């Protein structure tokens, strides 16, 4: 107990000291020429940020402390709401000539099952938007930050780029972006844009998670530089163009002994009634213990019938009632005859329209970044407790790192220490030594690009294994199986073996092997008999 009190006292002192450092550092940042915009939210956002008056955005923003800290941030306070808030810069920021740093902190205090926690960096308002009516249609230059819902789990980076030929804007999405951390700790997201080298770097908690080139055809989808040629929209496939690689052999003739009318199933003439079969006993009998209700009215309710029960004499017998020979597969069944396929002498391949020069093709040495005139948060989320803090737009990587070290790192260390203590108190401190190393490797594996859409599933399995130590071994085996399977497909390819299809005539299904030897009667047929239905109605009346 004394140890815990001393630990809490040390944590409070650390928080106070960190808060003093942050206050001093914020003053330095605000006066730095390398900081275009910085907001620590130490003061209320009211009067400085503009909350959208668009009626679709009913979510209430709050100026609130981060859980366990004396540090304030901008809080998403309600679940299942749309939120929109914007802050205009003193003057638009030109991204063309110098390195630009976009950085902010987010803490998902209630986790994030479905919602966004990203920022939008907006174009000047003369492009057709107003701060008071800020919404999802407001034109932005860059969208950056976490987004998670269903199969989506990524740190977005989207560049809206203007085609200099036709003037149209296209969203270009960063391919294979980093995934969103799955815990409830404070994390800091940094995008470093270097227009000179066309480089983009994405950092999560100060560690580089993705590096890309704006003009690479592999790093953005669709690529910023369009294709030189496009399919001719006016080109039409010739009427005599034959795309069939194989055709039925016109010279083939159906064999004389091919009987298309032979049934798929026939009676099994060799089958014999099992010994002990009770032909004289019905499968169901009236319940001898059932009595006609006193309030039963034959005129209104109809003639009363006792409910049916399974015949107890049939329980020890192989079957009851009339025995019928079961069906078996007809050895002479061949189905409808089809001529064998041969190579098509007129085959021309799969038709494709001819390629023509792309009228909207262009080439650039550097992307045409639109200026940033405001920073906004426009999200829809099913979770509350999302806290934004320390939003920075700057030009100096050293300044961005200093802010991370002074604002984010002290909070993260305290939160991480608290998380470890909670895990230890609940028996979840087993992630040590080899086990911790295994999870570190698994998280790195989950970031491999070739996993594609399966990355989310792998991350979910890793998270579940960490949260449930008693299932860790089994889940780790599942993860290894998933990753190995995908790896083998990537390395060696492979085809899925199609299921053997048996042609069924007149819509009949092959149920012969599933029917009982007593004659193919199905228990479901008994459940659907009229007597059962009547009894159900009677029983319902009795309840009513």
Automatic annotation (TrEMBL):
Keyword Calcium listed: yes
Main location per the UniProt record: endoplasmic reticulum
One term under GO cellular component: endoplasmic reticulum membrane
UniProt feature coiled coil, ranges: none
Family: Belongs to the calreticulin family.
Originating species: Lactuca sativa (Garden lettuce)
Sorted UniProt keywords: Calcium, Chaperone, Disulfide bond, Endoplasmic reticulum, Glycoprotein, Lectin, Membrane, Metal-binding, Repeat, Signal, Transmembrane, Transmembrane helix
Stretches the record annotates as Disordered: 224-260, 273-325, 502-544
Matching PROSITE patterns: CALRETICULIN_1, CALRETICULIN_2, CALRETICULIN_REPEAT, PROKAR_LIPOPROTEIN
UniProt key word Transferase: no
Transmembrane intervals: 471-492
Protein name, entry field: Calnexin
